[in-house]
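Ops channel
N.P.: pipeline sanity check, posting one input/output pair.
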């Protein structure tokens, strides 16, 4: 790796990987990339992290590129490390955004998920923390970019899955009720649930099922969160335009078959009547 890249600084570190800003050797000054690195070892945890990184690369390798989905430029393997090289986006997705920005991001994220599903891929960990913003996209708000495909799955017809699985991995606050318990489910519909939760969080700063400043770090807390999801118990103490709350409620439905597909989502009034929603305010107000 050191023979091909200069390492500038580490910009992120979690349970699964670390992320560095790097510059390819021989490239123009300032031409930086992001590199996601996992350590290779025989222990089960390290092997799981390596397989997740390799899965990211393999799942997206044969898919045509989309402006709102990360593209991997290089996979670097050494005896000690595995690395994915991708464009560097320095802006994470934020929350409590102006409604006009929410509209742009909502639509682009939905279109990206539709593109994935059209190419037989489910993300399985959609959330704002796995969404960056490309400010160099030539648009006022930039473009959202979906990242972190470690839990993604390829459902090509030759695999015979028909998008159905019993998996329950993902981030608890964004798991659909059927995925939370590992029931057989259509992963596309679980992605759509997570998309709706992310939309609501983008507009308000939290998911529909949590009170202000709540955290769900214990098994008991996660069980309470799950109870709220299956009961459809929302905490909406925000002054949101009707169109945004109506859109999110339409998507985040307990019955998977009642959830709209992406083309239906993009036909919602929120995307059609921009002037009315934007005039309702620049961001949500707590009430």
């Amino acid at each position: 790796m050191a023979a091909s890249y200069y390492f500038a600084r580490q910009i992120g570190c979690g349970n699964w990987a670390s992320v560095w800003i790097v510059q390819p050797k021989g490239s123009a000054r300032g031409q930086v990339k992001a590199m996601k690195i996992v350590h290779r070892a025989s222990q089960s945890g390290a092997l799981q992290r390596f397989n997740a990184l390799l899965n990211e690369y393999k799942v997206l390798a044969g898919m045509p590129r989309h402006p709102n989905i990360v593209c991997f430029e290089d996979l670097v393997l050494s005896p000690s490390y595995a690395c994915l090289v991708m464009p560097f986006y320095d802006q994470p997705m934020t929350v409590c955004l102006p409604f006009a920005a929410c509209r742009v991001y909502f639509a682009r994220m939905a279109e990206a998920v539709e593109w994935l599903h059209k190419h037989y891929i489910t993300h399985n960990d959609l959330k704002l923390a796995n969404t960056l913003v490309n400010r160099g996209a030539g648009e006022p708000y930039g473009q959202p970019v979906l990242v972190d495909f470690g839990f993604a799955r390829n459902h090509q017809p030759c695999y015979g899955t028909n998008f159905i699985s019993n998996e329950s991995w993902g981030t608890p606050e964004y798991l659909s009720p059927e995925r939370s318990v590992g029931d057989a489910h259509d992963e596309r519909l679980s992605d759509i649930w997570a998309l709706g939760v992310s939309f609501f969080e983008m507009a308000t700063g939290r998911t529909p099922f949590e009170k202000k400043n709540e955290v769900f770090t214990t098994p008991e807390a996660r069980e309470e969160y799950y109870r709220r999801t299956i009961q459809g118990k929302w905490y909406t103490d925000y002054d949101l335009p009707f169109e945004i709350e109506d859109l999110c409620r339409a998507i985040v439905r307990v019955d998977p078959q009642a959830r709209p597909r992406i083309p239906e989502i993009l036909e919602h009034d929120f995307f059609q009547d921009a002037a009315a929603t934007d005039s309702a305010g620049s961001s949500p107000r707590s009430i």
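N.P.: looks fine end to end. The first strand starts at residue 5 and ends at 13.
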